[in-house]
Task: structure prediction
Amino acid sequence: MDLQHFDLPVAVTLRLQSRSGAINIVAEPREDVVVEGEKFDATEADGGAMLEVRSGHGGAKSLSVRCPVGTDVVVGTQSGGVSLTGEFGTVSVTTMSGNIDVERADEADLRSGAGGVHLGSCGGRCRMNSMSGSIIAGSVGAASAGTVSGSITIDRVAGRLKARSVSGTIKASCDGEGAIVVKTVSGKVHLELPTGTALETRFKTLSGKVRNPFPVGHDCRLEAMSISGSIELVPS
Amino acid sequence: MMAAAPPKSTVVRGTIMFTDIVGFTEFNAVRGDDDAIELLALQERIVGEELGPDARIVKQLGDGLMIWFADSCAAIETGLRLQERFEEASWSSDTPLWVRIGLHSGQQSRRGDDLVGHDVNVASRIVNLADSGEVLASEATVRSADGGMPEVEFKQLGPVVMKGIPNPINLYRAERRGTV
Result:
């Protein structure tokens, strides 16, 4: 196993890639970056502000990285899973079929073709996408989430929410502080909003049922479109 | 008598766009063939209205289209415009035209009216990573645009290792500036 230390600026961006090898990154109180793996290739770019790492054996080997809190990370894999533990800055992870697990980020773009996406929390905007995997998020600032057959579950959205599924369930609790746009073909939609939120709604459904106990008003704009899936709004 | 050698392909350069209707199979199952055909016709009509003179639909692929553009800026602009039109159409009709779009620039080889080659394959992989409403573009397309689209922002998604493609492709999401 190879081990390399890099003394980089605190505002470093990590750019990592593998094929089937897993990528595990831990953000912790430290000022350097440590990369551990087998025959990986690491290159500093942009005057040391960026560290590019490719996993060994044509991307088949796993990578373990330790970096400062708040580091920006860009990761790409084919099937390798990606795990980010700790607090990160702007995170972008794209994988064809691996699972993605991010504990905390300031902003995030997480997309997997077939794997699941899990985001613990995100202070700002997050975009999550999976074709067949489930999308699960904790508390986020604003969210855009899309899946075909997987489900979408977001514990709390402080601002805007945009969610789309084909057959998967969409479930989210919103503060009602930003516009909500939800679309599904046959999935169920279950949205929680603060009791008494006055909604400016635009529903479009062909055969799905709509349940909306909220008063009409301008606290929050909500657009929901469904072909056959039900849309249920629930006071929280 | 020896068989004639196959004609050598003609190589062209340009940007390939793949479109794909998200949830088409489910929509077809729920709404039936007539509505599914209507959805495809709606996509084709809008695409036809938005394509410029230096672009052409190469072929239909089930619920998607493969389109060739001579100019990468035109491809990006058309992709964004198509998403705006698809969004409008989804609300104004009974058909959810939820489309994802992928772009990649390079060289393509003619095979009759078809275009084939590595760069076509890359474009077809890129669309699989897009969400509905999104336009994803490879670094080759963004570089080819060469700063000629100040009103468009390209957000880096990172190096993506795609099945069957030897080298990672740097992907970007194209958005009009000021939109979220």
